[in-house]
Amino acid sequence: MTTLDTPLDASPSRAASRPRAAGPGARSALHWIAVHSLALALTLMFLLPLVFIALTAVMSDQQALTSQLWPREWHWENFAHVFTRSPMLSYFGNSLLYSGLATVGMLLSSVPAAYALARLRWRGRNLAFFAVVAAMLLPPQVVAVPLYLLWAQLGLTGTLWPLVVPYLLGDFFSIFLLRQFFLTIPEDYADAARVDGCSELQVLWRVILPMARPGIAAAALFCFLYTWNDYFGPLLYAGERPESWTLSVALASFRGLHHVEWNLTMAATVLVMLPAVVLFLFAQKSFVKGITFTGVKG
Amino acid sequence: MSSTMTTTVDRAPAPADPGPPVPRRRRRRRLVALGFLAPAVLGFGLFFAYPLVATVFFSFTRSDGLNPPEWVGPRNYVHLVTSDPVAHTAAANTLWLVVVLTVLRVVFALGVASVLARIRRGAGFFRTVFYLPALAPPVAATLAFVFLFNPGTGPVNAGLRAIGIDSPPGWFTDPAWAKPSLTLLMLWCSGELTIIILAALLDVPTELYEAAALDGAGAWSRFRHVTLPSIAPVLLFGVVNSVILALQFFTQAVVGGSVASGGAEMAGHSKNLGWPGNSTLTFPAWLYQQGFRYFNMGYAAAMCTVLFLVSFACTVVLIRRLRSAAGTGEAR
């Protein structure tokens, strides 16, 4: 693994101001038209499914079974029906509990570990980093059997604890991502603090953390989103116990319960998608930064 | 190691203060690192190292999760290879996804990123739009796609009929089209990889393009000789990422099959696993079914071991290529 020591800036302003080699006159105009019509086509491709989902969500149940695209009447009460037909609110609470606790636990356990991997000098550091990458790349199904048996012995299957506890003990992807961020912070600041007599814990707390705030935000967002979207984990441990279902598990069986009511299914789909979208719109910059950081690992 | 030691000594504040002798300082440093790493080390042992070893052990046993495991030697592997045709179908489906999904996902993300890289005004808007579907929870996105691609009344086929295609595909309900439908779903959600590739594209030094243009290189030649070598490490990352994604492909396949079948059971419980006609049954899905629905946990552990070996081999091979590609990329 080579390490990345330069920050990667993908802010929109830079993308916008980037000059491109293009000839003047008619050729560049043609080029402009070609690129923008392609972009428009792609925009439709990416957006139309979302539009159709939203439109179907407010149709009557009969109309949702036809191939008409525009709602004849707008049934906003469909969204309310989702909550009355199923304990959506309790699923929402379970999802929030899983994602919230996992994210907090991840931060507590993974930030110091990532710092130790990025900035402390100790024998075996490279080997440990390789171990983190190996663990990060492991399909979650591979270790499911012994872990399930372990949690069953502790009597915790049927709850979401088997999913939360591992985050209190370090999440490998987050450690990896945070390490990449920490490496971009110039060592000089930390050294200056050390000269002033700070311990490593103080260096991390007072110097590194304030400077790594965007990176930490990105790691937290990814962790929250990953757990919010997770299906395999909650299905494995809580599938048998509907009281512990998260939104993803509940949504997967929603259509089973409400067979022909595509409108309600789509309304539930919209509701499940919404938190992630809102989160993204508020923290777009951190997202983009975090994503680009995962890509430059090679 | 010793070179890093010297650099620290060089940076020590005052030569008059030599500090504690080297071995003690080294031990102290290791203790500090260990303190920072302690939770993660525990997590690594409990949730990675132990279960990995235990999985290999269980794979040589008959185990139902209730009674103590009974040693059966390689019988699970023999059964997997010689007499479980469903597992072979599942393996073939997963292999199909590894090949098709990986190639299409990387090519598609590169294509979309190339368009994005050429847009100046409104770049932020387009980026948001192209990324948005990647945020959709997989279960929600799958439900939406099964609805959109509903052969009878879905908007996709309605559109296809409108432009004169009289018998559009059955998508999720047709064994031949189910995997391509899942692939389309995954392409729709590939915004993350697009953003990664876009960042790499924007990082290619403009001078390289200018020099190539001066040499009279056409668009294709510039792409082939300037863009591709510069972004090769990131493309290979995309390949590694997609291969891993395909190897553990579970949620979309299980939910898609069960919802499209109209089964009234909960997804993942369904007798309709792999519907239609086992065409969406992936290797991890069959593993899940064997281990946690039939409670053949020893057999499931054998499948886990196979999945681990395959994904580990893929990762090692691809990371090696990644490293050498990064090396040549820097040399250019």
In terms of topology, how is this protein built?
The complex is a heterodimer of chains A (298) and B (332).
Chain A: H1 12-17, H2 26-57, H3 61-64, H4 77-85, H5 88-119, H6 125-137, H7 144-153, H8 161-168, H9 172-183, H10 187-195, H11 200-211, H12 213-229, H13 232-238, H14 247-257, H15 262-282, H16 284-295
Chain B: H1 2-11, H2 22-58, E1 61-62, E2 70-71, H3 75-82, H4 85-117, H5 123-135, H6 138-148, H7 155-162, H8 175-188, H9 191-203, H10 206-214, H11 219-247, H12 251-260, H13 283-293, H14 297-331
Antiparallel strand pairs in B: 1-2
Could you characterize the architecture of this molecule?
The complex is a heterodimer of chains A (298) and B (332). With 298 residues, chain A is mainly α. Chain A has two domains: 25-80; 87-295, Orthogonal Bundle (MetI-like fold), CATH 1.10.3720. Helix content of chain A is 72%, strand content 0%. Chain A is built from 16 helices and no strands. In chain A, helix 5 (88-119) packs across helix 12 and helix 6 packs across helix 9 (172-183). Mean pLDDT of chain B is 85; it is low at 1-17 and 328-332. Chain B has helices at 2-11, 22-58, 75-82, 85-117, 123-135, 138-148, 155-162, 175-188, 191-203, 206-214, 219-247, 251-260, 283-293, 297-331, and strands at residues 61-62, 70-71. With 332 residues, chain B is mostly helical. At the A-B interface, helix 1, helix 2, helix 5, helix 6 and helix 7 of A face helix 1, helix 2, helix 4, helix 5 and helix 6 of B. Chain B: Belongs to the binding-protein-dependent transport system permease family. Chain B: Residues 91-318 form the ABC transmembrane type-1 domain. Chain B: Residues 1-24 are annotated as: Disordered. Chain B: It is a multi-pass membrane protein.
CATH superfamily of the largest domain in chain B: MetI-like
Coarse morphology of chain A: globular
- Major sheet description of chain B: 2 strands, antiparallel
Helix proportion of chain A: over 70%
Structural class of chain A: mainly alpha
Q: Report the span from N to C terminus of chain A.
A: 6 Å
Question: Averaged pLDDT of chain B, please?
Answer: 85
Give the oligomeric state of the chains in this entry, treating copies of one chain as homo and distinct chains as hetero: heterodimer
CA-CA gap between termini of chain B: 30 Å
State the secondary-structure class of chain B: mainly alpha
CATH architecture of the largest domain in chain B: Orthogonal Bundle
Uncertain runs of chain B are 1-17, 328-332
Which spans of chain A of ≥5 residues are poorly predicted at pLDDT below 50? 1-23
Number of helices of chain B: 14
How would you sum up the major sheet of chain A?
A: none
Radius of gyration over C-alpha positions of chain B, nearest whole angstrom:
26 Å
* Helix and strand sequence of chain B: HHEEHHHHHHHHHHHH
